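Work Package 3 (structural annotation) set out to generate three-dimensional models for the target panel prioritized at the project kickoff. During this period the team completed the workflow that converts sequence records into discrete structure tokens, so that structures can be stored uniformly alongside our sequence database. As a representative example, we reproduce one entry of 343 residues exactly as it appears in the project archive.
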Amino acid sequence: MFKTRWIVSAKYDLFFFMGSCIFAFAFLGLYRIAHHFKFILNGEAILVTYFFFTAIFDHPHIFQTFARTHLDSEEFQRRKFLHTWGILGFILVGLAISVAGYDSELILFASMFGSYHIIRQHYGFLRAYKGLNQDTEPLDNWLDYSMFYTGMFACFFNDYTEQQNNGYITIYANMKAWFPNLPTFLPDILWGVFIVLLALFLARQVWKILVGEAINLPKLLLLTTALGTHYFIFFLTATPFLIAEAIETAYHDVQYQGWIMHYQRKRYPNRRGLVGKWLFASLAYGLLIGLLEVYGLWKQGWLMLLFVPFTMLVIYHYWVDGLIWRFGKDKNLRDTMFGTPEN
């Protein structure tokens, strides 16, 4: 009899890796309630919501990256230059961009890179659940990956085509970033392809049930939450740029916190209290950086220099996360995080 495998456990995975999508809907709910009571979150008022997001959700998950890059001596030595001088290089590049007057474009780039990073994180979980449950038939691989990416990028491009306005996207208030207009039909084409792939995917699941093959439940739940959340945010709602980015990222942030806490427990089983200490430190970091970032955005001018270094740490996180979790090249890490089928 086939036994469904989870990364940690059914309860843990369902809360952190799938169910944490509820934070995105909760964040959107707060935004809608504010509108209902005439607290319209546009202009500078958007910064109130943005602070809540960046301080409680986003920067704490950025801080947790250092548990892998700097706390882990093996990883630190493997990419010592990137984790030291590389970080400084990221910050200096960001400051140069800011001094040149391209703060808005830097924020827009970070947001677009972040959206891609979120898609890749969901893809990583998708691959993990497929590997754990031996769901690797070529037809299933093709359907799963093509359906996932087409749907996610349909949402991604729909967001930016709706936000664009004569070559610019409004970050907040009068702060705008140049952005080349995308063809408005692009997300519609992608969505049409996605619907066809989704129909094939569902037909495949029905066929597997009819012939008595196992259904990969964790995979189905992850696809539902990842695609469903993005569809709801980017197709069914109309929110300002910073709000849309915050709503999208809230799910990702909690998902990542759950992942890192699992990593800390497995990598350092004898360090009591490590998970709690790092979680507390991440929240303290988030509050401090949230205050600095929002103050810089509010005052702008030279105070944007308070904002830029931490934006570059976010971009560093996006970049380095694609390097430090390559399980195909690190068997020890793979065994640490996933164990073996016998376990």
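Residues 10-338 form one domain.
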